[in-house]
Design brief:
This protein is of the alpha+beta class. The protein contains seven helices and 22 strands. It has a five-stranded mixed β-sheet, with no helix packed on it. Strands 5-4-11-8 form a four-stranded mixed β-sheet. The protein is elongated.
């Protein structure tokens, strides 16, 4: 059973004016006032044993994420109950607690459409065509059947994460779908290596960048416009884990996730992983398609003032995704049985191109941290499972926090990272509110 947050009072205060709420609740030294602690406790449904450690300016997770109308839930054949963030185009995230499996099942792969999926699918999917052209010696036009026959198949467990994952944590609000942490999937993909196909086509010395095209339909219906068309430097295209995939978890790719053929470019923004793939154009310069220019999929080189007008010259293309960890076995807002003291926590952590060196968990607003056991990735670009036990001293309201550190020593912070207008690369700590019943 979930905690039933009361919906008035502090929720509204935090919703309308978080700064005023903070000023009322915290004293000048940033410590939660006694009376505020009691009323916040009443609101959260129990006392807050570590309330004195709650940093001012940090809205309790229960208040920040728990109020208001319930989310809209996806009802689609073959898909789990994902949370809908938008319906035209369809965008739906997988709540962290549905991502508990080490390998994400097909029904739990999130959905990020920029246009509408293709209306017509060939009766025989093996007749689907893929063109490789541009800066190659021998342009190729292959059916899916030919692709499968001609090239060796590889299977890897690969992260595919939207560049905007974590965007909801940016303040001021960044534009775009307000993802929490659920724009991530780590499924077992099967396909051929893009590298092998490019080698068969023969890259010319002038080949610099890829450009991806799919058969989905632009929201305007205009056939000359791409819903999205991104690309990558040739070096990334030649990595052994960059796949042209035709199967996932041993079966067909769900239609909304790009059947029958898509790219999987692990570790980099999901927008590179073109769905309904029909063409890869090899270019002699950086691609300038839909999603490649302005502040799209770009992040500031020097930090910018949050909310300011961006200076486009200060932006670079987002490549590797940042380090992130999630708690997957306890849903946000879980009510734990009276008497619960030892809590087993588990989840996953990943870091784009890097590996995860450590995961720490905290139940006292970050005063103390417990080191989790972190498993090795099953292959490069698979996420890493972690597990930790934590002790809660009494009943009451707690937040379970997780923080991962990558192989460069970079850890997740309270804030999502460098603010940017479209909110890319946000990787704030994952916080799960729980209540131990009295
Ligand atoms: N053809 C096409 N490919 C696409 C997209 C799209 O809208 N059209 N969205 C991209 C984005 S932004 C992401 S994050 C991933 C999401 O893949 P999924 O919907 O299978 O989770 O697909 C990428 N590939
Ligand atoms: Mo995305």
């Amino acid at each position: 059973m979930g905690i039933r947050w009361k919906e008035r009072g502090l929720f509204e205060l935090y919703g309308d004016d978080p700064e005023r709420a903070d000023a009322l609740l915290f004293n000048r030294r940033g410590v939660l006032r006694g009376a505020a602690m009691a009323s916040m406790g009443a609101l959260l449904g129990g006392m807050i044993p570590f309330g004195r450690s709650l940093p001012s300016g940090l809205i309790p997770a229960a208040l920040a994420q728990g109020s208001g109308a319930g989310p809209k839930i996806l009802k689609m054949d073959g898909k789990a109950e994902l949370v809908i963030l938008g319906d035209r185009p369809l965008v739906a995230e997988t709540p962290e607690h549905l991502l508990d499996d080490s390998v994400t099942p097909n029904d739990r792969i999130f959905i990020r459409n920029n246009g509408n999926p293709p209306e017509q699918m060939p009766a025989d999917l093996d007749s689907w065509e893929l063109v490789i052209d541009g800066e190659v010696n021998t342009p190729l036009k292959l059916t899916l059947g030919e692709l499968k026959k001609r090239f060796k198949h590889y299977t890897y467990v690969l992260q595919m994460e939207c560049g905007g994952n974590g965007r909801a944590a940016f303040e001021p609000k960044a534009s775009g779908n307000q993802w929490s942490n659920g724009a991530i999937a780590c499924a077992r993909w099967t396909g051929v290596r893009l590298k092998d196909v490019l080698e068969a086509a023969g890259l010319k010395p002038t080949a610099v960048y890829t450009a991806h095209f799919g058969r989905d339909v632009h929201l305007t219906g205009d056939p000359s416009r791409q819903a999205i068309s991104r690309g990558m430097p040739i070096a990334k295209a030649l990595e052994p884990h960059t796949l042209i995939a035709f199967a996932v978890n041993g079966g067909p790719i769900p239609l909304v996730n790009g059947a029958p053929l898509r790219l999987i470019v692990p570790g980099w923004p999901g927008s590179l992983s073109q769905k309904w793939l029909s063409r890869i154009w090899i270019r002699d310069r950086e691609h300038d398609g839909q999603g490649m220019t302005g502040t799209s999929y770009r992040v500031p080189i020097k930090p910018m003032v949050p909310g300011d007008k961006p200076d486009n010259a200060n932006f670079r293309i987002l490549e590797s995704m940042p380090v992130r960890s999630i708690i997957t076995n306890i849903a946000h807002g879980t009510e734990l049985k009276a008497g619960t003291r030892l809590v087993g926590m588990r989840g996953h952590a990943w870091a784009g191109e890097q590996t995860v060196n450590a995961v720490h968990v905290s139940a006292d607003f970050g005063q103390t941290w417990t080191k989790a056991k972190v498993a090795k990735a099953v292959n490069k670009y698979a996420w890493q499972d972690w597990q930790a036990d934590i002790t809660l001293p009494t009943e009451g309201y707690y937040e379970l926090w997780t923080r991962a550190t990558d192989s460069f020593g970079r850890a997740q912070g309270h804030a999502p990272g460098v603010w940017n207008p479209q909110g890319y690369g946000g990787n704030a700590l994952h916080r799960v509110a729980v209540l131990v019943k009295a």
